[in-house]
Design a protein that fits this description.
Blueprint (H helix, E strand, L loop, with lengths): L3 H20 L4 H21 L8 H16 L1 H6 L3 H14 L2 H9 L3 H28 L13 H20 L5 H21 L2 H21 L2 H18 L2 H8 L8 H19 L10 H10 L14 H35 L2 H16 L10 H31 L21
Helix pairs in contact: 1-2, 1-6, 1-7, 2-6, 3-15, 6-17, 7-9, 8-9, 8-10, 8-16, 8-17, 9-11, 10-16, 13-14, 13-15, 15-16, 16-17
């Protein structure tokens, strides 16, 4: 059992990470300060609890998959010719930002803390999404809203993660009532945000993930179909009533005159060329921007150059080569397969949300944006991933404890009937 000092340090970690999730898109600097305080507290707590910190087998599995991915990018950071720059990029992307995940799975073991962290994030992100509507339709600042941050695609990627979470929290009985209230607010705000942000990739991603997360609940309770149907009717009604939305949606397949599409195709062709020239470790972690500028000099059809390839897979292929992209695919494959198998076996909402979070953020939306290098977005990915995993762990431990203390059945003569039970070692 934790002593009072350890409990206070744990509370401070949870508070700082919850506050971080709210302010990181307003100010990366303030978010980083809060994370820094949490990391410092985590170091102190790790030393104080060095003989008692434990992780279950499932958490270790996810961490091992992530660790393999991170290490597979290390050769490109160290040996591609720009070691100092590459190492700095490595430490920022895979050590500093990953600390969010580690702090939660190592130290935040109270469901109340996790619930409050998620509650705060949902409230603030609902406001963030709603702000896109104000920016576009009230203040007329832009034709595509960006919310509290400055990156339109970053908020779109986060909305893709959070919308499935809102549906599951609302429909599943294992979540607290206040989280359900927050999920309604955030869900409605996200639908407004999807219309105001106008990200075609976000529309397509949510079109795929929404049936995935709602199907099971609709089958169990047909009333949920009315909820989903009403929301979708409102969204589609506004969408199809505005020709500009229809035109934008149709432009997804326009590879001739739509510059957003043609620029991406040119960048991806550049990535393939970089990979062919540096197939093993790529051009170097963080080196896409200067390498693409150099590539553009010999291709006059390229009008604009970018700092990233607008695709997780293509960008990593160019920067980290065969070794790096293999690590990324290992992490994706392991995480998706394990979470899906676990969900099919137990129907745990936490497994379902781990699956949809990785699918939407890393895979689907990651086809059109290098979202894993957006500082705020990727740290929120690790934040949500860790909370779902930790909630599942706490629930499993509670169920196992209740199973152990449950009275044994008795024979007719009143003697106890001893039953041998096996419990997971994790």
């Amino acid at each position: 059992m934790e002593n009072k000092l350890d409990s206070r340090i744990t509370w401070l970690i949870a508070f700082c990470l919850g506050a971080f999730s709210c302010v990181t898109r307003l100010s990366i600097a303030v978010g980083s300060i809060l994370q820094g305080i949490a990391v410092l507290c985590g170091v102190i707590l790790l030393w104080r609890q060095r003989n008692s910190v434990q992780l279950n087998k499932e958490t270790k599995g996810y961490m091992a998959a992530a660790g393999i991915f991170f290490l597979c990018t290390l050769p490109s950071a160290l040996f591609a010719g720009h070691a100092e720059e590459g190492l700095g990029q490595f430490l920022d992307m895979w050590v500093w930002r990953y600390m969010i995940f580690l702090l939660i799975v190592l130290f935040v073991r109270k469901r109340t803390y996790l619930t409050n962290m998620l509650f705060a994030f949902l409230l603030f992100f609902g406001a963030d999404s709603l702000l896109t509507f104000i920016q576009v339709y009230i203040l007329h600042l832009t034709d595509r809203g960006w919310g509290f941050g400055s990156n339109m695609l970053a908020i779109a990627g986060i909305m893709c993660m959070v919308l499935p979470l809102c549906f599951v929290v609302l429909f599943d009985q294992r979540f607290d009532r206040k989280l359900k209230y927050a999920s309604v607010w955030t869900m409605l705000s996200i639908f407004v945000g999807l219309l105001s942000n106008k990200s075609r990739a976000a529309w397509l991603t949510c079109l795929i993930t929404t049936p995935v997360v709602t199907g099971k609940y609709i089958r169990d309770n047909i009333k949920y179909l009315a909820v989903v149907g009403a929301i979708m009717i409102g969204f589609c009604g506004f969408f199809f009533a505005n020709p500009s939305y229809i035109s934008r949606f149709k432009s997804v397949t326009n590879t001739t005159t739509n510059t957003s599409n043609t620029d991406r195709l040119q960048m991806w062709q550049g990535c393939l060329t970089m990979y062919k020239n540096h197939p093993v470790i790529g051009v170097g972690l963080g080196r896409f921007k200067p390498e693409y500028k150099e590539y553009a000099k010999s291709h006059p059809e390229i009008v604009r150059t970018y700092s990233h390839a607008h695709n997780n897979f293509m960008h990593l292929l160019a920067e980290t080569g065969t070794i790096g992209i293999a690590g990324y695919l290992i992490f994706i494959f392991y995480s998706l397969v394990h979470s899906l198998r676990s969900w099919l076996k137990s129907k745990s909402p936490y497994d379902l949300l781990i699956f949809t979070t990785i699918l939407s953020f890393m895979c689907l939306f990651g086809q059109v944006e290098y979202i894993i290098d957006n500082s705020s977005a990727v740290r929120l990915f690790w934040f949500l991933f860790a909370i779902m995993l930790q909630m599942k762990t706490i629930e499993q431990e509670k169920n196992q404890k209740e199973e152990r203390v449950r009275p044994r059945p008795k024979r007719k003569d009143g003697s106890k009937l001893y039953v041998t039970r096996s419990h997971p070692s994790g």
